[in-house]
Amino acid sequence: MTRNILYLAVSLLLIGGIAFAGNQKPLPAPNGITIPEGYKNWKLIASSHRSDNNTMRVVLGNDTAIASARSGKTNPWPEGSILAKLVWKNTTHEKWPTATIPGEFVHAEFMIKDTARYKDTGGWGFARWKGMEQAPYGEKADFVQECFGCHTPVKDSDYVFTHPAVIPE
Amino acid sequence: MTRNILYLAVSLLLIGGIAFAGNQKPLPAPNGITIPEGYKNWKLIASSHRSDNNTMRVVLGNDTAIASARSGKTNPWPEGSILAKLVWKNTTHEKWPTATIPGEFVHAEFMIKDTARYKDTGGWGFARWKGMEQAPYGEKADFVQECFGCHTPVKDSDYVFTHPAVIPE
Fold first, then answer.
1. Which homologous superfamily does the CATH classification assign to the domain defined by A33-157?
2. Is the ipTM value over 0.90, yes or no?
3. Chain A touched by B65 (CB under 8 Å)
4. What is the pTM of this model?
């Protein structure tokens, strides 16, 4: 009887552990930003290929950002816009050697527009999660100065590099 | 009175004409395929950059294709899958010269999986609409032989070049 209760307890702990692992969310970024839910299902804004660091990128947006991108009103982007940039290492298509395609997943990075909350970084909250395990980037909250510094050259386009790709109506 | 009725009739015709122009769908492809509705709102499968013809590409999928891509079951892709490839001419980011980004829109092209209907072309219906005006590609229905010929080297991956990009859960 005691042994049966022990088995039951161990089983429940195991099931609980598996359930916890399955629902585990990535840790928040050091500045407190949590990873936006379901970003991989967001709609397309643009893509890019950087030859300086050999990465392929696709930029997706939440509904606010998409409405703004599609209406051409992105300077400034409206409050609540979130841009998600998914980044992969370059690889080459095995059957089409002149095609560069996404290889290993590098990171997902985000810009969240909240002018009041992120007034020290151009009205944007920055965060990044690394790799398939989605480990938060940065040691301390001031990691955002690195992001913001890199985006300063595009201050005149609301600190955003991405130009929404033109797509027919 | 007669003149007022004439004005009214002309006004209604004009309004009708504008409404028609606003809702105008691209013409069907020569093989009868009509452009899939709302494809620009579909979810992401992958991207690519072809240096042989200097184009950037993003591949989106309908819900059937996305479910299949996310579960890794794409050989074969299931019936009803539609892949949409959006293609732009290369351009360079004005503030980041090593970033190639989408410029002018070239075309949107589609692969529609219906094994019975398209048995002569690997189970896939092919179609393409050119430019922002979305003009159907091809003179006659046999234009698909050009599409199919180009996809024959990837027969072993169900005639599809695109490998779904890896994205965290």
1. Cytochrome P460 (3.50.70.20)
2. no
3. no
4. 0.88
